Amino acid sequence: MNVPCFVSVILFVAGLILLIIGAEALVRGASRLAAVLGISPLVIGLTVVAFGTSSPELAVSIKSALSGQASIALGNVIGSNIFNVLFILGLAALIVPLVASRQLVRLDVPLMIALSVFALILSLDGIFSRIDGFMMVAGLFIYIWFSIYQSRKEGIGTNDASEGLVTGKDKKSGWIKNIAMVLVGLALLVLGSKWLVESAVSFATYLGISELVVGLTIIAAGTSLPEVVTSVIAAIRGERDIAIGNVVGSNIFNIMGVLGFAGIVAPAGIEVSNAVIGFDMPVMIAVAFACLPIFFTGGMISRQEGALLLGYYVAYTLYLILAASQHDALPKFSAIMLFFVIPLTVFTMFTVVLIEIRIRKNQ
């Protein structure tokens, strides 16, 4: 069904407005909810915000698994996790340098890396089975419980951005209002991202852009639009824990929740191709590993590091397009990335880490 161009324009504008309003409501409600419940904004970002903004990925993956297209669920998780780190963290850091908390460096980022490796190990036999899915979902509930327990135990319920927001009667009744604000924000994000993706696909069709390019760019990033806007709004509002926690938490939820539930409902499990095992999953793992030295060096993602992450996402997307279209420039592009850009980046990261270690020893 072809949608008139003017309708697509209206949907695009309306979707963008809903995304902005929804993200604002979600971040505001989540930060106040953290203060009311005595839970750190980081944990709220890692759980409520992250899992909520990942709901489009969950819906797409479960629908794909039930309709016999379970491999789409795996591709959705891998693509979203790469997009979350490279694009969202990069964009948010360009706006405001992001400071990472100790919990992220010590627990959540290492967990994200471990889960990425574990997903690859489970897939080496060519199938992500129902048992694998149950293990992932069980781990998700344990992670949620531990995060909330640890936060309340340490008594880190507020930060500078949320202090003074909750007093007196608000502590008794405010949580209802804030939960409602979170739910409304999530609903607006899901609806807004749906309209934005539909209109963007319509634009691409109208302009004669191939379905291949649309699938590799617009659709791949479409389900991550809630995370994009939420992290950007959170960074602008000074809720940096929510901005980072949203990305890391979304990646954790994508692997344990989205992939886990998809594996459970898929009648024959999720088939994992050799191409996914040999390229896409290693890229997801490499991107997860890239977070650790960035967070370690001073606990901050600087604007320069944000630009580096964005640059890698552009390079990754360009590679996918060249590979899918079998373009003549693919061998040269692959050689440049493999033998120059990636080694130079790895060398630079480890050099920065070593310098940081020496600085800390001398302090």
Strand order of the largest sheet: 1-4
Classification by helices and strands: mainly alpha
Count of alpha/pi helices: 13
Topology, number of strands: 4
What is the radius of gyration computed over CA atoms, rounded to a whole number of angstroms? 20 Å
How many domains in all? 1
Order of helices and strands: HHHHEHEHHHHHEHEHH
Shape: globular
Percent in strands: under 5%
- What's the helical proportion of residues? over 70%
The top-level CATH class is Mainly Alpha
Mean pLDDT: 78
- CATH hierarchy: architecture: Up-down Bundle
Q: Largest sheet, if any?
A: 2 strands, antiparallel
CATH superfamily label: NCX, central ion-binding region
CATH topology: A middle domain of Talin 1
Which runs of at least 5 residues are low in confidence (pLDDT < 50)? 156-166
Distance between the termini: 66 Å
Q: Helices, strands, pairings?
A:
Blueprint: H1 5-37, H2 41-53, H3 55-66, H4 70-95, E1 98-99, H5 102-123, E2 127-128, H6 130-154, H7 170-207, H8 211-222, H9 225-237, H10 240-265, E3 270-271, H11 274-296, E4 300-301, H12 303-325, H13 330-362
Antiparallel strand pairs: 1-4, 2-3
Helix pairs in contact: 1-2, 1-7, 1-9, 2-7, 2-10, 3-4, 3-10, 4-9, 4-10, 4-11, 4-12, 5-10, 5-11, 6-10, 7-8, 8-12, 9-10, 12-13
